[in-house]
Protein 1
Amino acid sequence: MTPDAHAPAGTRRYLGIFAVQVLLTGAAIGIAMIPGHPHAIFIALIAIMITNAAWVALNFMHLRWETRGLRRMVGIPLVFLAVYAIALTLEAAWRHLQ
Amino acid sequence: MSTATSTAVLDQPPAAAWPPDRQLGTASPAKIAMWIFLVSDGFSFFALLLGYGILRSGSSTWRHPGEPSLSIPFTALLTFILISSSLTVVLAYDASLRGRQRQTSAWLAATALLGSLFLLGQYAEYFGILHPGLIKEGLVLGKSSYASTFYVITGFHGAHVLAGVIYILFVLVYSLRGKASTGLVEVLGLFWHFIDLVWLLVFTLVYLLQAT
C-alpha cells in the first residue's frame, strides 16, 4: 500500500469489474422477468444481489486491498445484520406455521 | 522564531504524520471515518429493508386493487445509469492516482451528471414527466404499506443520491482548482459506491421481487 493506502490503479481492470456488475444486474433482471417457481426465483435473486453487492464492496470500494483490520471493522457489523435477518425471518416463518 | 512565523504555525499546524497502525495500516482518518459512517448508514437501510420484508411477508394482499405495479424496464435503465456512475467515479480516482487533474475533473463531472439523471428519473417515476407518475396512477404515500414502504425506501436512497451529487460538485470545484487530493476523491468514491451498492439491494427487493 502507498502512504495513503490507495488501491492500485488500472482502467482496464475497472472496466472488467464494471462489465461483471452489468452482467450480474442483467442476469437478475432476466430471472425476474422469466416465469418460474417463485421460491427458486427468490433464492436466485437474493444470491445474485448478495454477490453483486459483495463485488462492488470488494472491488470498487477496494476492500480487497485493505488491511485485515479495516476489513474486520466493516465485516463484523455485517454479521450482526445477518443474525437479525435470520432471527426475524425465523420468527416470521414460525408465525406463518402457527 | 519570529512573531509572524509563530502566527503562521498557529494558523496552520503541520499535517500530522500518522504512523502505520497495526490494524488499519496507513488508511487516512478520513477514510476510516467514512467507513464507520457507511457501516452505520448501512444499518439504517437494513432496518428499512427488513421492515419492508416483515410487512410484506405478513400481508395477505400486498398490492391493493387500483395501485400500479412498478416499472422494471424504466428502473433497469436507472440502475444502469447508477452503476455507470460507479465506473466514472472510480475512473476519476484512477486518473487522480496518476496525477491527471483534468481527467479527474471530467470523470467527476460525468458522475455528477449521471447522478442528476438518476434523480431526474426518480422524479419522473414519482410525479411523471412524459407520462403520469406513480402518484397520479394511485400509489399515494400513507394509503397502504406497499406505497409507504416504496416511497420511504426509495426516497431515503434518493436523498443519499442528492447528497452525493452535492458532495461530488464540491470535490469537482476543488479538482478544478487543482486542490483535490487522491484521498479526497477516494473517500468521495466510497460514499458514491455505497449508494450504488444499496441501490442494488433496493432494486432487487422492492422492484424485481414484486415481479415474481
Protein 2
Amino acid sequence: MKTVIETKNLVKVYNGGVAPVKAVNNVNIKFNEGEFTAIVGPSGSGKTTFLNLIGGLDKPTDGEIFIENVDISKLKERKLFDFRLKNIGFVFQSYNLIPVLTAKENVSFIMLLQKMKSNEMNKRAEELLQAVGLGDKMDVRPSKLSGGQQQRVAVARALASKPKFILADEPTANLDTQSALNLLDIMARLNKEENITLLFSTHDQRVIDRARRVVTLIDGAVSEDVNK
Amino acid sequence: MKKILKISWRNIWRNKIRSSIIIIAIIIGIMGGIFSGAIRLAAEKQQFEEAVDNRTSHIQVHHPKFVANPEARFYIKNGIHIAKEIEAIDGVHSVSERSVVEGMVASANLNAGVRIKGVDALAEALTTNLNSLITEGTYFENEGRLPSIIIGEALANTINVSVGSRIVLTFQDIKGEMISASFVVEGLYKLSSRRFEESTVFIQSKNIYDLIGKEKHVTEIAVVIDDVDNYRLMAEKIRKAFPELDVKHWADMEPSLYYSLEFLNQNLIWMVGIIILGVSFGLFNTILMSVLERVKEFGILMAIGMKRTKVFLMIIFETIMLSFIAGVSGLILSYGMIRHFKVKGINLEGVGAEGLEDFGYATVLYLDLDPQMYFQIGIMVMVFAVLAAVYPAVKAIRLSPVEAVRSE
C-alpha cells in the first residue's frame, strides 16, 4: 500500500514556559493511502501539535515529515502555502468557515485559490455539498447553519482541493450525537468510496469506534498503534 | 481577485453599525473640512473681488511721487492720452483716469479726512462698478446747482449726512493753495470694507478740474485687464511702455490680501487634510479592531493555503471600499452643501460679522470650491485610508497560521 505520510524522528519542543516542553517526542510513523486513523490520547499528549506538524502549519524542532516523498519540514513558507493548498485538507474543531461566504462559496473558495475554472469549480462544489447532504443549503451563510451542518461544509471544503489526505482536529467535539454520527457516516463513506486518507485527533469514542487504525500518543510519543 | 473583492465587500457589512459609524465620521470629516476651507476661501475671494473690482482695479498707474505723497501737484502728464494708450494695449479691458487728492469733508457739525476721487462717471462704472454699489440715491445723474458727490454709507453715518445733504470738501489745488467747495450728496455706496467706505468719496472729474486749476488733471489711472491671472505680465507691459510712471498691480497694492490668498491656495488642502487625518485615526481603530477579532479567521485562510499577500490585499480592499463609500458620499454631500451656500450665501450678521467688515470681509459669504479640490480631497481620503489599514493588515499577515487557528 502506498505511503502518504511518513515522519522520521519527529520532535517538537516548546520553549515558552518555565522549562522546555517536548510536545512531540521522536515520532516515527507511516500512514498509508485510504487509512482512517484516529490519533488519541489525553489532553496535552501532543495530538494537535502532531497534526499541525504533518499539516505543514508548524515547523518541527527536529526530524523529517515526508508527504509522498516531499520533505515538507524543509519547504520555504511560500512553497508550504502552495503545498497545503494542493495536498492537505483541514477540518477544524470550530468549523471555521468564512462567515461572509455561502456554503457553496466556502467550498469553492479553496478551488478558487487553486485557480480552477469557474464552471468546474461550481460543479465540484455542488457535488461535494450534495455528497455531505447539504444540496439544499448551498446558498446559505454559515450563521444560518447548525453546528453539524457547518462541520459538513468544512468537510466538503477540505475535500474540494482533492487533497492527498484530510487532517481533522477534534471535528466532532462541538457536535451533538446525531450530528457527530452523520458526519462520521459521511466521512467513512468518502474514505471508502474515494479512498481518501483521514487522520482524526479525537477524544470521541464514536470516532475511535469508526476508525480502522488507532494511534495513541502519550507525552508526545506513540505508545500504541492498533489496526482494527 | 474578484472573490477577494467580494469577501472584502461582505466583510465591511459584517458589523453594520461599526462600519456605518466610521462612514458617517468620514463624511462629517470631509464636509467639515470642505466647509471650513470653503468659508475661509470665500471670505478671502470675496475680499479679493471687492478689492480688485471696487477699489484697486487690477493695475494702477501713478506719478512716482504720488504714492508716498498724494498731492495734486504729482499728476501724470498727458494723463488722458496715456490712459487711452494703455486702453489700446492688448489684454486691457477698461481704463479709468482719475484725479485723486487728499482732503477733508465737513458736514454742518462734523468732519473727516478723506481721499477724493474725481472720476469719469462712465469709465468708473466700467472699471470699479461703482454705480452698482449705490444703495441710496443715484449715480451722477443729477445736474443741480451744486456738483454731486457719492460717499460711503459709513462716512455718511460718521459725519451725520444723508442723500440730499450739503457737504464741503477742502483740499489743496495744484499750487498747494487750500480750496473749499460745496457738494450735494447724490448717492451712498456700500462696500464690505468699512474703512474704504469711510475714507473715499467720488466726484466727477470735470468738477475737480475746475477746482484744482488744471484741465485733464490725472493722478491715477485704474486698469482692468481681461485675464486676472495675467496681472503681473500686464503690469510689466505697461511698465515697459511707460517707464517714467509708477505701475502697481493689485498684489503690490494689497500685499496682505495677496499673501493671505497665496497661503490659502497652497494650504487649504492641508487644512482639510488635517481634519481628514484626524478622522483616519478612527478608521485605523475600526480596521484594527476588525482585524483583531478575526485573527482565527485569517489563520484558517492561511492554513488552507491563502497566501499572506492575498490576506493583506483583502484587508486593504476592505479599507479602500469603506473609505470609497464614505469619500464619495462625503464629496457628493459636500458638493450639495457648497452649491446651496453658493446660491443662498451664509449670512454672518449677528455673529460678530460687524467686526469683520472693519477688516474688509463681507458679511454674507457665498461659498465656492475649485472642482479640482474635490478630486484632491477624494484622493487624500483614499491615501489616508490605505495608510490607516497598513498596520492592521501587516499585523494580520504576521500571524502564524497555527497560532491564529489556536486562538479563540
